Amino acid sequence: MDRECTNESLSPLVHGDAGGNDDPFFDVVTVSDMNLFRRREQIRPELATALAQLEQLAESQPALRSAARLQGAIMRVIYRDLPASGALDLAPERAAEKLRVGTPLLRDEPVPLDLPAIEALMLQLCGIAREHGDAAEAARAIDAALRRRTLDAGRLAGQVLLGQASAIRERAAELGVDGELLCALLRFSLFPALATAAAQLAPLLTAARWEQGYCPICGSWPLLAEQRGLEQVRFLRCGLCAAEWATDRLRCLFCGSRDHEDLGYLHVEGDDQKRAVTCERCRGYIKVLASLAPIPPLDLVVHDLATIHLDLVAIERGYTAPI
Ligand SMILES: [Zn+2]
Ligand SMILES: [Zn+2]
């Protein structure tokens, strides 16, 4: 598989911000989100679990405190009023054909997204980022562009579904706004709707074998992998729609190399359960975490953040995560 021909991922906002600003959350989210805490909101159990894990991470790793609390604020917002998502109508035969030729199921399908709700989410997330030191200026510029309609949420969402992260970054560059932040805001704003779509389409994934490293539902590169259960089957997990798909652990998911001399891994001494699996041929890497059961969709970003040290080690050695 040629890595150049496939899709690009939108990288998570938290990656850019794990450097050690340890502003407490309640200082960070002072204005726009305090209403969240005043009114006793009903928190979905899976959100409560993810937030508790983020809080634990913030307590145990001071360097990640700011990022963990920012992530918590983002998750509260994206799961406060879930954008409605309609049913997807995809016949099993069409799904099987797409899978056979390596086309993600959502590609070129009319995906029923509530675009006004997604735009509203993006603006709310801009509000949170505006309160967060480093990203404040960049968030203000994106907020202004969305309100002026020089950035169009519907068009951006369409480009995400077409795997055109580079077009999004180019548009951002034309407007002089931060492309990485824009991609991160989009990714978070689309996550609930795409995770719902992925759950709806998951039964169709058995229609044919999927051999690709990118997501069979949305086409994004995986955020991480799980080595699951006693059988140690490796599953890739999408950070954009939370889909999971099995993969061959003796093969590089990016370039397809099966040469054992190409495939290696990095880990921190004393913690062999979390690895960055690397490939010498394409210099790609992916984090692989041991798990007993599938990681719930909302916990994916928590695990990603908790293992950021592996990203740093891999990047330092010249490996790259898919972009
Ligand atoms: Zn996906
Ligand atoms: Zn490779």
Throw out a few tags for this protein.
alpha+beta, 12 helices, 6-stranded mixed sheet, 323 residues
Spell the H/E element sequence.
HHHHHHHHHHEEEEEEHH
**Which ligands are bound?**
zinc ion
The structural class is alpha+beta
User: How many β-strand runs?
Assistant: 6
Strand % is 5-15%
Using the CA coordinates, give the radius of gyration.
19 Å
Fraction of residues in helices? 40-55%
The rough form would be described as globular
CA(first)-CA(last) distance? 16 Å
What does the model show?
Helix 3 runs antiparallel to helix 4. The longest helix is centred in the middle third of the chain and has 23 residues, at 179-201. With 323 residues, the chain is of the alpha+beta class. The radius of gyration is 19 Å and the shape is globular. The protein has helices at residues 25-28, 34-38, 45-60, 65-78, 92-100, 115-130, 136-148, 153-161, 165-175, 179-201, 300-306, 308-316; strands at residues 222-228, 233-238, 244-247, 263-268, 271-279, 285-291. The protein has 12 helices and 6 strands. It has a 6-stranded mixed sheet with strand order 3-2-1-6-5-4, with helices on one face. It has 2 domains: 2-80 and 221-316, no CATH class; 92-202, no CATH class. One zinc ion binds at residues 215, 217-218, 220, 238, 240-241, 243.
